[in-house]
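call fold(seq) -> tokens
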Amino acid sequence: MKIDGRINRSLKTKAKILMAAQNIFKDLGYKNTTVNKIAMAAGAAHGTVYIHFPEGKDEILAHFMTDLMDEFYSVADIEFEPKTTEEAYEIIRSQIFQFLSLAKKYQTELLLFYEGIQVSQLLKEKWGYINENFIKRICSDITYSQSLSLAKAETDPEVSARILFYNLEHFLWDIIHNRVSFTEESIAKNLTQIYMYGLYNQ
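ret:
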């Protein structure tokens, strides 16, 4: 099917706006980025940006947030079908390590998101939605482990999933703000150990 010329032009304009916005955000940060600056960089009218993104720069940054977090989701979606506790440990440790490594890789982008989340309700809600998706994935893995009696049946999957993810999120922000001296390997090993086996001897 042939795409209508107007639709094609609209898609090209939207792509130009996104490309310009990405550069402006990286150069100026969230606070100093404005729709006007994005429009000028894209060679578009101020109103044109709002036609494509009615919520302005927050909606544009939410778009980038969704795209980037898809890569983080791919880590959470790694096949989780352990047959033993040892296999479960290794998969979880690897997932945590990869998640934290991505945080380091995308430090600039995540700093932008962090800045936006502090002041934008739209971005705060978007980040909350992303968090809930991670928690659902972890919860599913715990339920699977319980079905094989690898994890304790009396443990609440959602509570456990939230404990793990909230710690992961905390380390993510610490990493992008350069507040930790630990390696991703060390964090992954210790967090997995505590998550799976607890801290104190039985």
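The CA atoms of residues 97 and 187 lie 8 Å apart.
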